[in-house]
Each structure stands twice: as structure tokens, then as C-alpha cells.
Specification:
It is a single chain. This protein has helices at about 25-30, 75-80, 85, 105-110, 140-150, 170-180, 220-230, 245-255, 265, 270-285; strands spanning about 5, 10, 15-20, 40-45, 60, 65, 95-100, 120-125, 130, 135, 160, 185, 190-195, 195, 200-205, 210-215, 235-240, 260. By secondary structure, it is α/β, with parallel strands linked by helices. It has a single domain (about 5-50, about 75-190, about 210-295), classed as TIM Barrel. The protein has an eight-stranded parallel β-sheet. The longest helix has 16 residues, at about 270-285. The chain is globular, with a radius of gyration of 18 Å. The protein starts with a strand and ends in a 12-residue tail after the last helix.
């Protein structure tokens, strides 16, 4: 059974990675050998340390969860010094998610990863643009092309652009990222959601709304991956509600080259191991000899 693939010129042993924001390398390494994954994608890293959002910032809901954790991180210098050496122990590729509140912050953090031994960079364009009154970078095609183009000039590794689903037409955003020079796309980020405590008569989350993830978002994510795969000529990391190996196969059939596991690994830290086994079992059962046979067949 052939699981390996080439993603943006980087050889991957299998199509599984982690979803940024749901993966803590040191914590998850206590449950399984990180080397089993094709790649690991770390939580967003900014040019300077960022505080997280006030609590409560996580809530369980039907079919998934809401989170408003915020892109809490120690900043690029501290991450490179303290966290990268830990990940380098493992035989897996490293994808670093980059975040910023302004164009200058995005380009600055991109510059900080020049020459750093990681394999790919993932640009989180779901951040609020403080220079534009908090409008999310990733919802405006012109802004998407502008920020991707600016960051692309500063990086020396393949650049993945992570798309927000909170738009009218996901293909319009995908085309803008492609025009800006993206090497690959990842989608979807979380949907916006809200939960109200009807007895306390107030939102459960301190910031009222949060990112909705989990099994219930999978049909939306599969649809968007399918649409984007037909609209652009870029490899895709699909994600959103992946709980089983069959879910992975579904995303690959929709057009994804790789698939990220997020909320499932928060519920069960060993989920990636199980999901990889289930994917292999699915392929054996259905006569798939090479995972590439089913990519984009829908």
C-alpha cells in the first residue's frame, strides 16, 4: 500500500498532518510517536509574543466545539529556540503556521523563518487586520492577494495559504491566493459560531463568538475543498471534522492531497494513529494500491 506523496516538492511518508491550533508537540508526543505523521503543523507563530483571549474560551456544542483561545504564542524567536529542537527529533516534516495583525507583522515573521530548518510555512489569513478596523484579511480577495504576495517575497520555503470559510465564495479567495503566489492552500479554518447559556442569559464564551470545529463542519469543508480543487491548480490540505480514516479518503476524493486532523486529536490524543490505520484498512478493503489513485476522482 503506497501512502507516500510529494507535496510542494517535499516528500511526505503519508498524507496526514495535524491542524494548527489543535496540536501541542510535547503533549501529543506522550501518546504516540510523532514520526508516524507525514507532517506536523504547529500553532500560529507571530513576530512577537501574543496573549490569548480571556476565559471561558472553549465550549462543547452539538457536533463539535467552539473555541476562542486566540493565537496565544511565545513569538518566533522563542519558538525557534525552545520548540523547534524538540520537533527535530522526529522523522516528520514541520509546517509552521504564521500569523499577524498587520502587513508588516506578516512580513516580519516570514523574514524570521528564513534559513530556519522547517519544511513549509502556512499563512493564517483568518487574522483580524487591525489597520482595517478588524476586518479579517482572508475575507477580501484584494487583501488576500496583497498579503500573500508580500509574504511570498520574504520566504524561502513553500507557502501554504489557509483559507477562512466565512466568505460568500471560497473559490474567489482561493484564486486571489493563487494570484498572490501561494504554493498550496489549506482549508477550511473554523466557521463562526455562538453558544448562549440560557440560564445565565449570556454567551458562554467571554468573547461571545468563536470558531466552530468538529464532525458537524465536515460536509461544508468537503464541499469547499471540492470547489477549490476545481478552481485553482494548487495542492490542497483538506481539514474540517475529520474523525476517521474514511473521512480522510473523502477529502482526498474531493481533491485534497493531504488531510489535517484537528478536533479529533483534542478528544482523543491518539486519534492520528487510529485514523492512519483506518485509512490503510479502507485502501486494502477497496483495492486501492496507491493513495494517489483516488485523489480528486469526484
Amino acid at each position: 500500500m503506497k501512502m507516500n506523496l510529494d507535496f510542494c516538492g517535499i516528500p511526505m511518508k503519508n498524507p496526514l498532518t495535524t491542524a494548527s491550533g489543535t496540536f501541542n508537540p510535547r503533549a501529543h508526543a506522550d501518546f504516540y510517536d510523532l514520526s508516524i505523521l507525514g507532517a506536523v503543523t504547529v500553532k500560529g507563530v507571530a513576530s512577537t509574543p501574543w496573549d490569548g483571549n480571556p476565559t471561558p474560551r472553549i465550549a462543547e456544542v452539538y457536533g463539535g466545539m467552539l473555541n476562542s483561545v486566540g493565537l496565544q504564542n511565545p513569538g518566533a524567536k522563542a519558538w525557534i529556540r525552545e520548540e523547534l529542537p524538540f520537533l527535530q527529533q522526529y522523522d516528520t516534516k514541520i509546517i509552521v503556521n504564521l500569523c499577524g495583525h498587520t502587513m508588516d507583522e506578516y512580513t516580519e515573521v516570514a523574514q524570521m523563518f528564513r534559513g530556519v530548518p522547517v519544511d513549509l510555512l502556512e499563512l493564517n489569513i483568518s487574522c483580524p487586520n487591525v489597520s482595517a478596523g478588524g476586518v479579517t484579511f482572508g475575507t477580501d480577495p484584494k487583501m488576500v492577494e496583497k498579503v500573500v504576495s508580500a509574504v511570498k517575497k520574504e520566504v524561502d520555503k513553500p507557502l501554504i495559504v489557509k483559507l477562512t470559510p466565512n466568505v460568500t465564495d471560497i473559490t474567489e479567495i482561493a484564486r486571489a491566493a493563487e494570484a498572490g503566489g501561494a504554493d498550496a492552500l489549506s482549508l477550511i479554518n473554523t466557521l463562526l459560531g455562538m453558544k448562549i447559556d440560557i440560564y445565565r442569559r449570556k454567551p458562554v464564551l467571554a468573547r461571545s463568538v468563536g470558531g466552530f470545529s468538529g464532525p458537524a463542519v465536515k460536509p461544508v469543508a468537503v464541499r469547499m475543498v471540492y470547489q477549490v480543487s476545481k478552481a485553482v491548480d494548487l495542492p490542497i490540505i483538506g481539514m474540517g471534522g475529520v474523525m476517521t480514516g474514511e473521512d480522510v479518503a473523502e477529502f482526498i476524493m474531493a481533491g485534497a492531497s493531504m488531510v489535517a486532523i484537528g478536533t479529533a486529536a483534542l478528544v482523543d490524543p491518539q486519534a492520528p494513529v487510529r485514523i492512519l490505520q483506518e485509512l490503510e484498512e479502507f485502501c486494502d478493503k477497496t483495492g486501492v494500491k496507491d493513495i494517489q489513485e483516488i485523489r480528486g476522482i469526484i
